[in-house]
Every structure is written in C-alpha cells, then in structure tokens.
C-alpha cells in the first residue's frame, strides 16, 4: 500500500517545493522592485535640510515647501490655490511627516497673480504663518541664491514622497519610507538644455522659459518628490518643483531667483 502511494507523495512534495520556491522568488522580486521603485532619493535626517516644510491640507500631507523666512513659507501655488487659511497647516522640524512635527497655522495665502493653474508657469505661493517659527538645528530659514550654477552642476533636492506617485506604485516595503524625508543629488540644466531633454514631448516647446529649470532623473524608475519640494546649491535656495512624475523626463522647477522681488515684497 505504501509503495503504491509513494509516487503520489513524491509528486505532492515536488509541487510543494515548487510553490515554496515560487514564493521565495516572488519575495525577492518584490524586494528588487522596491529597490528600483524609489521615492525620489534616500532617507536623511531633518537636520541636513532644516529649511524643509510639509504642507498639509485638511490634515492630509499634500505638498512641500521651503522656510523662506521664519514667518513665511514658499510653496507651489497649485498646492494651496482655492483653499481657506484654516484648511492649511505647515509642519516643520521632523524627519517624518507626522511624528514629532511642529504644526503651525497659516494666516494668509498669497498665490502669484499670474498663476492660472493651467500651466506650470508662475506656480508659486507664499504662506504667512500666524506665529513665526523658532529657529533651531531642525528649523531654519534658507537664503535665496544670487544665480543658478552652471549647467550640469550637482544640486540637492529634498522633500517627501509624493503621495500621488506613491499611491500609483505602492509596495508594502515602501510604506515606512514614504513618510521619511528624502534627499537626491542631481544635475541641474537651464531652459535650453531642458527643452532638449524633453525633446520627444511637445510639452517642452511651449512651456520652457527662463523662469524654469530642470534636474536630471538619477534613476529612470525614480518618482518625483512632492510638488513644492526645494532644490538647493551650496546651502542656497534655487527653486521648487512645479512638474514631476514617474517617467524618464526630468523634474521641472520654478527658478525662484527670477522671483526675488516678488518674494521679498510679499514676505515683509
């Protein structure tokens, strides 16, 4: 009887082993995907970018921004346009979006008067805080640069994962990482070079002006940081993300240096 059952037992063992191996391969593939599907950079502590701010709308993290002054945050107009002051909160001083943050109310929103919401141009807003922030190792204002560095210069992008892209490409192993501050070292390019990098996309021909610049993708699988995330060079602010995605196309930034007068006039 045992001999008759032996072939069946052997077949069951092979199938079981095959399923186990497939499961192990699946876990390895998932891990590999998580390594490829980045959240825009690698995790860092808030002390390496104390000027960063997370913007929440109705208690949900939506965008990022930079502490332009201890009383003012610069972010993307598209993030806050159409919302009341009471719906917006600024979170600072923490590596994660939710734990240990200092949350501040917003008393006034100024969206750039030329921003239409239909293009990436003039996608800029200033949030005046109801109470100024207290400077510390984790909270600091950042100065605006006087000019963009040369084409191809290495710049630093900081921010949190865009929940828009994270939701589309969600994987369990990314769950914790999505809440951590990210950093990416990338190359910067001016409008002419950006148009070339976007050459296969008609969008660039009608949108790239001197008010914009772009940064290379450090990985084709990388997704952009949240809208409004700042990019800096040698500790000085250059711009904020106005257009991103999960493609091979470069991130597009508002060149804040071109808006210096506007920024200063609205942060007095």
CATH architecture classification of the largest domain: Beta Barrel
The rounded distance between the terminal residues' Cα atoms is 92 Å
What overall geometry do the principal axes of the alpha carbons give? globular
The CATH class of the largest domain turns out to be Mainly Beta
Keywords: Disulfide bond, Hydrolase, Protease, Serine protease, Signal
Domain Peptidase S1: 38-268
Biased composition (Acidic residues): 21-32
GO biological process, one term: proteolysis
Structure description:
By secondary structure, the chain is of the alpha+beta class. The chain has two domains: 94 residues, Trypsin-like serine proteases (Thrombin, subunit H), CATH 2.40.10; 116 residues, Beta Barrel (Thrombin, subunit H), CATH 2.40.10. It contains six helices and 13 strands. The chain has a six-stranded antiparallel beta barrel with strand order 8-9-10-13-12-11. A six-stranded antiparallel barrel has the order 2-3-4-7-6-5. A hairpin with a 2-residue loop joins β11 and β12. The longest helix is centred in the N-terminal third of the chain and has 35 residues. The protein is globular, with a radius of gyration of 23 Å. About 10% of the residues have low confidence.
Keywords:
globular; disulfide bond; Thrombin, subunit H; 2 domains; alpha+beta; 6-stranded antiparallel beta barrel; 268 residues; hydrolase
Question: What is the structure about, briefly put?
Answer:
This protein has 268 residues and is an alpha+beta fold. Helices cover 24% and strands 29% of the residues. It has 6 helices and 13 strands.
């Amino acid at each position: 009887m045992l001999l008759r059952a032996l072939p069946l037992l052997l077949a069951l063992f092979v199938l079981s082993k095959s399923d186990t191996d497939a499961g192990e391969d699946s876990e390895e593939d998932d891990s590999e995907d998580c390594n490829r599907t980045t959240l825009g950079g690698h995790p860092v502590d808030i002390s390496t970018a104390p000027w960063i701010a997370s913007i929440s709308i109705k208690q949900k993290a939506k965008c990022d921004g930079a502490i332009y002054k201890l009383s003012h945050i610069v972010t993307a107009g598209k993030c806050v346009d159409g919302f009341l002051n009471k719906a917006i909160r600024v979170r600072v001083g923490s590596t994660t979006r939710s734990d240990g943050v200092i949350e501040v109310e917003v008393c006034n929103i100024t969206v750039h008067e030329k921003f239409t919401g239909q293009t990436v141009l003039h996608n800029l807003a200033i949030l005046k805080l109801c109470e100024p922030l207290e400077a510390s190792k984790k909270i600091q204002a950042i100065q605006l640069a006087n000019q963009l560095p040369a084409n191809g210069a290495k710049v630093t992008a900081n921010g949190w994962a865009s929940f828009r892209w994270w939701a589309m490409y969600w994987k369990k192993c990314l769950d914790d990482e999505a809440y951590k501050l990210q950093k990416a070292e990338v190359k910067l390019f001016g409008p002419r070079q950006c148009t070339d990098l976007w050459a296969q996309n008609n969008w660039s021909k009608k949108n790239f002006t001197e008010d914009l610049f772009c940064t290379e993708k450090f990985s084709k699988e990388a997704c952009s940081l949240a809208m409004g995330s700042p990019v800096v060079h040698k500790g000085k602010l250059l711009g904020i993300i106005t257009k991103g995605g999960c493609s091979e196309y470069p991130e597009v930034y508002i060149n804040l240096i071109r808006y210096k007068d506007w920024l200063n006039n609205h942060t007095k």
